[in-house]
Amino acid sequence: MIDLHVHSTCSDGSETPEHIVELAVTAGCTAVALTDHDGVAGVARARAGATNLGVAVVSGCEVSCVISPGTMHLLSYFVEPGDGPLQSELERLRQDRAERNERLVARLQDLGLPVSFEQVEAAAGGGVIGRPHFASVLVENGAAADIQDAFDRLLAKGGPAYVPKARVDATTLIRAATASGAVAVLAHPFSLGLAAPEFERVLDELVAAGLTGMECYYGRYSPEERAGLVEVARRPGLVATGGSDFHGRFKPDLFVGTGTGDLDVPDAALSELESRRPTTRA
Ligand code: AMP
Ligand code: FE
Ligand code: FE
Ligand code: ZN
What we know:
By secondary structure, this protein is of the alpha/beta class.
């Protein structure tokens, strides 16, 4: 069993990279990929924690991308520390997010809502700061009933406190990943919300850009949905990968390795991804 989709405190998960490694071992995983949003800062910590535990730590990240007619999440694996086209894109996205977050605090304050940057930083616990952290501070300060209320009335796209952030095109990011020696995988494909013919057209476009795999064994998908996706992945020759999308207590129904309980991603998914690693680095 392996798990190729896990978030830590380095983005929007509640558990540290070190603890995630322990959870993976307990679940019986032979490998776990850390896939925090927009960066690989947690990987070194996870690797240090994994010494002598018999679990391999795969360096990964997840990025929200634009693909006409909507958005999708792209997972990249074998992301090396240091320089590269993918690493530059990630840095640009993190920089833009930091600026967006400052504008978001100002916007909320303009609306007369109680929130400070320090509180948001504390809510993020040192990880990547995102709208959910703003939502949790608004709840804490009594300005929203719960997280969903904060989004519905303020933070959601089109809301009075919505401040957009930079977007990267999916095909651009796939090419950057490939040029950096990494492989790109489409995360939770149903999130695109596209029906078969349109979905297959988008998939072709992604494959043409160098997409290597598709997340078929996803924590929240049913066994039937997973099997259906494995079939879809077969035609364009994509590796059928999978993972839990563990976020700790922020998605309490999901566990490392087993997802909602019945997930069992085959080890072959990782060896197949490894065999598709681009040999030349830009
Ligand atoms: P950010 O990357 O900072 O824009 O935050 C994106 C995150 O906010 C997503 O991963 C979701 O967890 C959350 N989110 C976005 N839109 C909504 C919404 N309408 N309702 C609840 N949560 C949302
Ligand atoms: Fe997340
Ligand atoms: Fe995602
Ligand atoms: Zn995720």
